[in-house]
Specification:
- Helix content is 41%, strand content 15%.
- Strands 1, 2, 3, 4, 5, 6, 7, 8, 9 and 10 form a 10-stranded parallel beta sheet that branches.
- It has a single domain, classed as Alpha-Beta Barrel (TIM Barrel), CATH 3.20.20.70.
- The protein is built from 12 helices and 10 strands.
- The protein is an alpha/beta fold.
- GO terms for molecular function: 2 iron, 2 sulfur cluster binding; 4 iron, 4 sulfur cluster binding; biotin synthase activity; iron ion binding.
Length: 328
């Protein structure tokens, strides 16, 4: 019976063991009626290894659209005809104002995100460094950024500017990635993560579910993140956007989404598993259940090109479930 499997593997993790690939894959085949049990055990694992604190982060889309990369899910890619706002790097004062708002909202982290392949020969990099430094002087927020592919010199400059964690998603498994993006490689992304870790910074890296991946490929992604020893794992749920290559992708069932969160918690018991984009549209009223299936981090407020809940609503949900948002 699948509930015996759930309790057996849960006990293995709770006593310090690590799931094998085949054990993790077996959790994708549990009977639907046992999914609530899977969520409950994942919640117990979260409680055991990470406690009741929730890592929160607000982001700003500091440079939007016109991206040279052809990621099939992305509204900001120049390869697709999407009605998305496009603009150059925002003024330092505008980004600073967003950071101060994030602090008032109760966010623990603030992340500057830019569209584009990466920072090689990017004329905006020095302005971004200056803005990061100023946020450090005028707020108590932990500072993060997501600027695409980085070389070691970029990483060191960001560290000197005060960045503590760098975000760079793998997006999906290595076996599916070539079908998702052709303008850079999966190995390019791994190299950036390794450059960040080599400099002593934390890494925030996860992916998107609903791209057409199999359960096996979701497990592959989780095991890649475990191999790379990333610190924070954002899990996005695809919002099919008109004009992109994945506009007609079928939405995932809410229980499948929650099962995925639980699966990642079993595989990555000590890490931050972070609620990210797509949760509102795909889970609706079931959003709070994510925090009972292993989630211990979240993005507050809006995303890059889509709206989320208000930060107040997000934090109220966390508190009503007996959890404690981290404070700067």
């Amino acid at each position: 019976m699948s509930y015996d499997l759930i309790f057996s593997l849960g006990k293995k993790v709770l006593t310090g063991g690590r799931l094998t690939f085949d054990e993790a894959l077996s959790l994708t085949q549990v009977e639907p009626s046992d999914i609530p049990l899977l969520l409950g055990v994942a919640n117990k694992i979260r409680e055991e290894f990470t406690g009741d604190q929730v890592d929160t982060c607000e982001i700003i889309n500091a440079r939007s659209g016109g991206c040279s990369e052809d990621c099939k899910f992305c509204a900001q890619s120049a390869h697709y005809d999407v009605a998305v706002e496009t603009y150059p790097l925002l003024a330092e004062e505008t980004i600073l104002a967003a950071a101060k708002k994030a602090a008032v909202d109760g966010a623990y982290r603030f992340c500057i995100v830019t569209a584009g392949c990466g920072m090689k020969k990017d004329p905006d990099f020095d302005r971004i460094l200056s803005t990061i430094q100023r946020i450090g002087r005028e707020t108590n927020l932990n500072r993060c950024c997501s600027l695409g592919l980085l070389e070691p010199s970029h990483v060191l400059a960001l560290k000197d500017a005060g960045i503590t964690r760098y975000h760079h998603n793998l997006e999906t498994s290595p076996t599916l990635f070539p079908q998702i993006c052709t303008t850079h490689t999966y190995e390019d992304r791994v190299t950036t993560i390794q450059n960040v870790k080599a400099a002593g910074l934390q890494v925030c890296s996860g992916g998107i579910i609903g791209l057409g991946e199999s359960w096996r490929q979701r497990v592959e992604l989780a095991f890649e993140l475990r191999r790379l020893d990333v610190d924070s794992v954002p899990i996005n749920v695809l919002n099919p956007i008109k004009g992109t290559a994945f506009a007609d992708n079928k939405r995932l069932h809410p229980l499948e989404i929650l099962q995925t969160f639980a699966l990642f918690r079993f595989i990555l018991p000590t890490k931050i598993i972070r609620y990210a984009g797509g949760r509102e549209r795909n889970l609706g009223e079931l959003v709070p259940l994510g925090f009972l299936s292993g989630i211990n981090g979240m993005l507050l407020g809006n995303y890059l090109t889509t709206q989320g809940r208000t930060p107040g609503d997000d934090l109220n949900t966390v508190k009503e479930l007996g959890l404690k948002p981290l404070m700067p």
